[in-house]
Each structure stands twice: as C-alpha cells, then as structure tokens.
Fold this sequence. Notes:
- It is built from 4 helices and no strands.
- By secondary structure, the chain is mainly alpha-helical.
- The longest helix is centred in the middle third of the chain and has 32 residues, at about 30-60.
Amino acid sequence: MTQTDLKYVVAFSSVSxxxxxxxxxxxxxxxxLSGAVFQMFAHGIMTALLFSSxxxxxxxxxTKLIPDLGGMSRVMxxxxxxFIVAAxxxxxxxxxxxxxxx
Length: 102
C-alpha cells in the first residue's frame, strides 16, 4: 500500500500470481494442475498488457510514480482505459478478458 512506483506494484502482483500457481501445483490433483495452467495463461496475458501499458505511460510521461500520474485519464483516456482493463483482469473481475471460465 505504500509503494509509489507503479512498475514495482505490477511486479509484486506478478509474484503473487505465481504463488497461486504454486498452490495449484502443490495439490497434485487434476483440478489443481488445470487451475495452475489456467492461472499461468491468464497471468501471461494480463502481465503483458500491464507492462506494455506501463511502458507506454512511461514513454509519454517519463515517470512511473503513482502520485505523479494523477489525472491521467483526462490527458490519455485510451492508455488509461487499457491499463484499467488489464488491472481488472489481474484482479479476476468477471467480464474482463481473462477472468475465468465461460
């Protein structure tokens, strides 16, 4: 909650997702394995979108600090939209690109 660098926040969420994959693999069941594989797939898509959005934001703003990015959606609505979609997918919100089984 006190991290101000957005790249570190995305990296910490990536580590957290891999912990969930480890939990699925440690069950040594078919359900655990399929859940781990699905989580790895979702993580790959979501993390790629988050890091590419963050890279675009950095190129345009020359900062990764969260306090400096206030009001970003007024200046760059499409970029902030992509970032919001990626963040929602990372949280597993239903209806987001990789949020669960359909």
